[in-house]
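User: Hello, can you help with two protein structures?

Assistant: Certainly.
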Amino acid sequence: MQITGVTQYDLSHALEGSFEPNWIPGYPQSTHEVGLFELDTDTEHTGYAASPSFAGGLTYDGPLSLFLTGMDPHDVDAVRRKLASVDLIGPRPWHLLMALWDLVGKAADKPVYEILGGSSDPIPAYASAGEVGDVDDRLAWTQARVDEGFEAVKLRVASPEDVRIVEAVRESFPDLEIMVDANKGWAVRVMREEERWSPKTALSVARDLEPLDVRWLEEPLPRHDHESYADLRERTSVPIAGGEFLDDVGECYDLLDAGGVDVIQPDAAIVSGLRGGVGVAAAARERGVEFVPHTWTNGLGFAANLHVMAAVDAPYCEFPMEPPWTPDARDFLLEETFTLDDDGCVAPPDGPGLGVTVREEVLDG
């Protein structure tokens, strides 16, 4: 099998309203923008990958075709080396790796998780908020998620004062598993600069969270400051999480070697690729660190991460849920929509490759 070309589709899906993501300060998001990539081969199989995008997109299927045409998608390491050159001179390309595994699985007529050594066992899901909101709003949001069957939620905080949201949710839901995400690792600066925390502030927030029995505090510091992460981890009993938007899979190992996190979260669509994520999970396990990847991208990215989680028996699956950002909105480019089962879990798709089907309508424009 050889890759014969790459075609890019810039997709935009209108949300039924808007919300203000904590990682895009001051920006009301009303559309879901996706860069969809189609890898054609000299066989009947086509592989698909997708990346978060922005209005108008950033077109680079021409350079990708130049680098990848003639490559065997089974030779993942060789393709990754080619993509490293794309990363050097252009946009972050690691999402393309999911298309390779889509092709490999389709050629073998097996789901990717099976090729990677995993099973189809459902994975417990936690509802991942997008906004900060106020106390009343977040209490209502949490109740809605519990009513939907979630047994764990992740709350967003932007400033130290937002700990009061976590306090209120803990008081009202004493048995609920609660994660906390500060979103200080990175930001998209469309409207304004984000509020960064110093190590002193991050420690103060962590200590305020200690009596609230939270599962983890996520990204309280800039993502490249591994030393400060390690120092914070030593000085608080709250588990520290991060790594969702590191530059590449190598930096995941650097973060682990620095002792920076209790939970490492590389997204297969953004950082690690699929087999790279499996390797990071194995290295994390050796160090007593949990592996729970970030999944807030799109339906294809969610599917790719599910295959990785299934391969490594991850303890949790992040399930984005901030209406109007719903499963239907996340998965608009797919024929299928990922939903929870009756036990609050989500299972990897069991069809060949990534196990999902891109809707013909999005390919036809």
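That covers the first. Now for the second protein you mentioned:
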Amino acid sequence: MSTPTQSPDLRGLGPADTDVVGEQRSFTPLARPQLPRWAPLLVAVGAVAVGSLLTVVLSWGPLAAALVAALVFHVAMPVWSNVVEGGRRAKDRVATHVMWSAFVLAMFPLVTLLWQVVSNGFPVLSAEFFTYSMRNVVGEGGGIYHAIMGTLIITAWATAISVPIGVLAAIYLVEYGERSRLARWITFLVDVMTGIPSIVAGLFAYALFVLFFGPGVRMGFGGAVALAVLMIPVVVRSTEEMLKLVPNELREASYALGVPKWRTITKVVLPTAMAGIVTGVTLAIARVAGETAPLLIIAGDTDSTNLNAFAERMATLPVFIYYSYMQPGVPAQFGQERAWGAALVLIAIVMGLNLLARAVGKYFAPKTGR
């Protein structure tokens, strides 16, 4: 019994890959060669070596060596990729390198700033630094207790003023104003207020309080009003965007059940958008916590602890940092050290508020589970 002859396997081959039955041509593989994963590391090491060599030979500084190394890497890597992987992959690598370079350039000032503040401010931190004021302190010693309390009080009053106004204004714009002329004017004014310099807000608060208390007035509540002017447009914009993200189907379903509009807003719309609203408010607080110019004009500065926002001057961390560095006293070393320590505390407060915004937003976010 004869064994049947097996025909060649032609599956997956097109007409261009076969001439006749039983004949098979060679075809180009679909996958192109690729560089190994360690190729960027190898090129980076070579670029650093070239930069270091030029630094030694030409007596260049470290910045020039870093620039040369970056240039060598950005040229050598795409050229090698173009030879091995082709033009498309080389262009992709060029785009990737450009984005990473932009990221590094953006992070360099931030990292440098944090390093300077932490290295100069951390040695100053102590229990005395947080629990003592600068009353009757000359030279070494003292602390920022009065400035911390002033910052917290003024920021709390600014929040109490700006949040109700901003949230209610956003509710009117989204739920009631629609395309009315008043809504368009409010939107225009909010856009204008978003771009005003902070010192203008301080001048506005000072001019307002001069009408009631006379020239030379200084009080913490005036600083709160100035900060509220800066916070209101941020709160309005963030709340407005969050309310627009609430699906109209939720409103229509509530109206279909006979629920009045005000109750729909308070029980359906606001709870749904609460995460974004709270996040926007917290970020607005963090934005004004470090303002200096308005507080210099209307809140002033003092070495004593003042917990009454409606009487006398009130110290704040930004103003304390300004005066401690610009007018450090004799000897200047101790005043400048206190300025660095206060700057570190202020950055920690702002960073904490940003982290709190993320945590609160996650907590109030609508639950998507069953």
